[in-house]
Amino acid sequence: SNVKTIQIMTKRDGLFSALLALLVALALPQELPAQQETERHYRVELIVVRHLGGSSDSTPQQTLRDLSEILDLYAPPDESAAGSVNSGDAKSNVDLSDSVLLEGGLMEEQPIAVRIDDMSDPMREIWRRLRGSAGFRPELFRAWEQSGDQSSDRPFPRLRIHDDEVLFTMDPATRAAAPTANVPVDEHGALVFSDATIRRKDESSLDSQMSNEPEPIEMYYRIDGTATLTRTRFLHLDLDIELREALFERPATEPAEDFDASAEERDSPPVSQLRTGPAADASAFRIHRIQQRRQVKSEQLEYFDGPVIGILALVTGFDVTPEIQEPETLQP
Hints:
- This protein is of the alpha+beta class.
- Helix content is 14%, strand content 31%.
- The strands form 5 sheets. The chain has a 5-stranded antiparallel sheet, covered by helices on one side. The chain has a 4-stranded antiparallel sheet with strand order 7-11-12-14, with no helix packed on it.
- A hairpin with a 5-residue loop joins β3 and β4.
- The longest helix is centred in the first third of the chain and has 26 residues.
- The radius of gyration is 30 Å and the shape is elongated.
């Protein structure tokens, strides 16, 4: 009887041990498949609004900032002439994950924002309400998507924000015989021009010396400026946008005021004679400018106010899983 009792206890303990081992195995953390890392992206939407009753005592200016070197997602496809390409036009719709093939077969990531033409539902409703308002008029909508992660090879993009109304253009090819002079810059380092000065390209640049492509035609828009969304600990939106109104105080046939130059340089045409477009003969421009940097929150509408124009901004954050592209094997 003792032997049978031991056998029964042994079977019972074996069953209990097996059950205990199963429970322990189920309780232990299972090895999960590796999850792909996600990137934080942001959609930025801007609406430039004009105060119909607003006034400004800004002094008329004879200079305009040339922003042709800033990345332009909104350059029209026919902006180039004689085969020249706008500095931002070639990159206008490049995806964040795209790469370009460099000399030697190296691949370089392009930290370029992606242009977006469609309004979100909140901004569409705001635009509709503004159009029906008696005190405001929506002037411009612009939107883009960008990555919120910054590194040395993927900086936050500084984008050119402008409308489609061109005040005038300047073709650098027709300015080849114009006098070279030291040209003033504004507080941001952007080059400016006037009838008294002529913008000169940086001849020390190795790219400009070695490139055989003609310089792009400079475009000056009625609404023009820059926008930058940066992320450190918080999100910050930096806006510098201006509305330009041409003033025709000088008859078109009246020659431009001469500048201090040598006799040889005076034989070159002044800048006012090199302009083409509706406001080519404008003697000055009244500029209404907004220049503000502010902390913003995702999915919260922000308003940048000014005496004549204001800017409504909506930033929306979302996660994106980058596509992993397998390297292509070269066929012999």
